[in-house]
């Protein structure tokens, strides 16, 4: 449980207002089959976070706990640093002909590959020693954060103050990162 809940919370916070969520709004509007889009996103999230967890497990084998804790804190601060900036629009999905499930899984996997959520998942996996719980928690957080965007499509951005949520999430991620950095440096 040391990895599951933190990974879930970080992924949930990091996804709000992110490019992937913007993509999900477009996918929801394009296909109008929420179950297939959500299933595709969930599969892509599981695969991406499994990669992050596996990399974290590999890192943990070579790097001691304190530097991993420092890396996790820096990762959280970096994840938070993008919060005040405008999000670049994702690629268009209007011409994709693979169907709702495969288009959603493919587009989401590609866009989320190597992003901040995957990086932080790897760091949490390395620090906790539970890579698969970190991956599962992060995949669940990503999926939960994106379900409303699928269901509401572009209305999601009109209903929810995504910029304010991004900034609040950024502040929370930065604070958590600062605490971890201070602990790793034995200042706190």
From TrEMBL:
Which locations, inside or outside the cell, does it occupy?
Membrane
| Alphabetized Pfam families for the sequence | GDT1
Chief location bin: membrane
Q: Which InterPro entries match?
A: GDT1-like
Q: Where are the transmembrane segments?
A: 33-56, 68-87, 93-112, 132-152, 164-185
- Note the topology in the membrane: Multi-pass membrane protein
**Would I find Transmembrane helix among this entry's keywords?**
yes
Report whether DNA-binding shows up as a keyword of the record: no
Q: Which keywords are on file for this protein?
A: Membrane, Transmembrane, Transmembrane helix
PANTHER family, A to Z: TRANSMEMBRANE PROTEIN 165, TRANSMEMBRANE PROTEIN HTP-1 RELATED
Q: Which family does it belong to?
A: Belongs to the GDT1 family.
- Name it: GDT1 family protein
Question: Which species?
Answer: Sphingomonas abietis
